[in-house]
Design brief:
The protein has six helices and five strands, in the order H-E-H-E-H-E-H-E-H-E-H. By secondary structure, it is of the alpha/beta class. The radius of gyration is 14 Å and the shape is globular.
Length: 140
């Protein structure tokens, strides 16, 4: 894990808005609460299309947490949408799923995800993966 000074600098600077996209409202609220405890602002979307519309309307999160398994449009579909567009290609993205299969982790990482967290999520694991994702984008 990164030193507290680095985490505090990120939280107090411009990297503080996290969008959560998950069709499970209870999980979305739980992740949002964890992030608020870590001093992040959050915005929750229950469908990837709503998040895509918000992006196209000018919304700009500092990081996105995407559930992989959602009906109609999956988190992997949303990740592909983000990585194809120049304006969001460098947006840190963390995948969230109950899928433990290594193939899903590998696929998400190959598609450009910056981290992967398994459900049920713990605040410590979420903080660790987010810190790594932010750090990865800062040193680019």
């Amino acid at each position: 894990m990164l030193p507290k000074v680095l985490r505090r600098t990120w939280n107090e600077s411009t990297m503080n808005l996290v969008w959560i996209v998950d069709d499970d409202e209870e999980m979305g609220r739980a992740v949002s609460l964890m992030l608020k405890l870590l001093d992040y602002e959050t915005k929750y979307f229950f469908h990837p299309r709503l998040a895509a519309q918000a992006l196209l309307a000018g919304g700009q999160p500092d990081l996105m947490v995407l559930d992989i398994n959602m009906p109609e449009v999956s988190g992997l579909d949303m990740l592909e949408f983000l990585r194809r567009r120049k304006e969001w290609n460098n947006l840190p993205v963390i995948m969230l799923s109950s899928e433990a299969a290594d193939i899903m982790v590998d696929k998400a990482m190959q598609m450009g995800a910056d981290g992967y967290v398994m459900k049920p999520v713990t605040i410590d694991e979420l903080e660790k993966v987010m810190s790594q994702a932010f750090y990865k984008h800062i040193i680019k």
